[in-house]
Structures are given as structure tokens and as C-alpha cells.
């Protein structure tokens, strides 16, 4: 027989909900957008930059693509 966890009552009201503006949601929960905040996430971000740049170049909107990874925050 499988034991089930006891249900806990949680509730929230409208006053408990707030909307994040602009880039605030990305800064607050980056893993939600890129999947990871570790090396895999960095790899994904670089991949997206290169992939999107290639799309623009193929469409004729760019001749050169340059991606720089700089130290820092």
C-alpha cells in the first residue's frame, strides 16, 4: 500500500501576488528562462546568441558575427 502525504492547506490572496516588471523576472529566476544557472545555462545563453546571430546573417541583416564573453558579474 502506498502512503500518501497528508494534505497541507495553503492559501494565498490577491495581496500576496505581485507582478515583476521588465527584466526583473529574469534576474530573480534566471533558471526558469535558461534552465540552469551553472555552466549548462551559460552554454545555452552563448548558443542562443550564436544561433540568433546566424539567423539574422542568413536573412541578410548582418555580415559579421562577434560574441564576446567578458569576466564580471
UniProtKB/TrEMBL annotation:
Class of enzymatic activity (EC top level): isomerase
Membrane-crossing residue ranges in chain numbering: none
Gene3D superfamilies: Histidine kinase-like ATPase, C-terminal domain (3.30.565.10)
GO molecular function, a single term: DNA binding
Documented EC number(s): 5.6.2.2
Keyword Nucleotide-binding: yes
Origin: domain of life: Bacteria
Enzymatic reactions: ATP-dependent breakage, passage and rejoining of double-stranded DNA
Keywords: ATP-binding, DNA-binding, Isomerase, Nucleotide-binding, Topoisomerase
Family membership: Belongs to the type II topoisomerase GyrB family.
Name assigned to this protein: DNA topoisomerase (ATP-hydrolyzing)
